[in-house]
Write a structure and sequence with these properties.
heterodimer; A: 113 residues; mainly beta; 4-stranded antiparallel sheet; globular; B: 113 residues; 7-stranded mixed sheet; 50% strand
């Protein structure tokens, strides 16, 4: 069975500091991994995905994520946080050959001025 | 949220009434999905459809029904059999399965009293 864990309910960071939002996954076979962001009372916006190849994936709004197969992790990172990055972030995984996308429970990111 | 519309944004119903949530996309995507979002639980898949006139149950289909008569439309009916219908409902679409990301609508917040 596929599963995703986001171990932190909330991450606090000061503006200008680097941020990391953690995600670990469990699948049989090769994973497709995704990060989405959700602002209050809005739908989810796609940030980036890993399919294959380079372990460092770059996405929208300066975000990037690092795929680590041995640690089964796909942490979201940004070198310098903005107050406007404050939102709810979801990691998701789909095993190749499977149809369903499984989401984590989300991590709330709060960036203070 | 571009390309997928959900209406209405807020919906209020009395217990025991069926209610239909609208989802329309103009992205020419084959696959469409309905998710339910509750605080602290992430997104849970209700139904999905890979092609017109075909759909499959997700993880929490009980008390819900869908139809897919047109490629661009995937309405969700919340029936009176759904025990706890108050939630935020999200519709999504994708080009296909596999590594393709899903695009989300803005959501409908349903409150049943």
């Amino acid at each position: 069975a596929q599963s995703v864990a986001q171990p932190e309910d909330q991450v606090n960071v000061a503006e200008g500091n680097p941020l990391t939002v953690k995600c670990t996954y469990s699948v049989s076979g090769n994973p497709y991994l995704f990060w989405y962001v959700q602002y209050p009372n809005r739908g989810l916006q796609f940030l980036l995905k890993y399919i294959t190849g380079d372990n460092l994936v770059k996405g929208s709004y300066g975000f990037e994520a690092e795929f680590n197969k041995s640690q089964t992790s796909f942490h979201l990172k940004k070198p310098s946080a903005l107050v406007s990055d404050s939102a709810l972030y979801f990691c998701a995984v789909r095993a190749s050959g499977f149809q369903k996308l499984v989401f984590g429970t989300g991590t709330r990111l709060l960036v203070s001025p | 949220d571009g390309g997928i519309t959900q209406s209405p944004k807020y919906l209020f119903r009395k217990e025991g009434q069926n209610v239909t949530l609208s989802c329309e996309q103009n992205l020419n995507h084959d696959a469409m999905y309905w998710y339910r979002q509750d605080p602290g639980q992430g997104l849970r898949l209700i139904y999905y459809s890979q092609i017109v006139n075909d759909f499959q149950k997700g993880d929490i289909a009980e008390g819900y029904s869908v139809s897919r008569e047109k490629k661009e439309s995937f309405p969700l009916t919340v029936t009176s059999a759904q025990k706890n219908p108050t939630a935020f409902y999200l519709c999504a679409s994708s080009i296909g399965q596999g590594a393709n990301e899903q695009y989300f609508g803005p959501g409908t917040r349903l409150t049943v009293t």
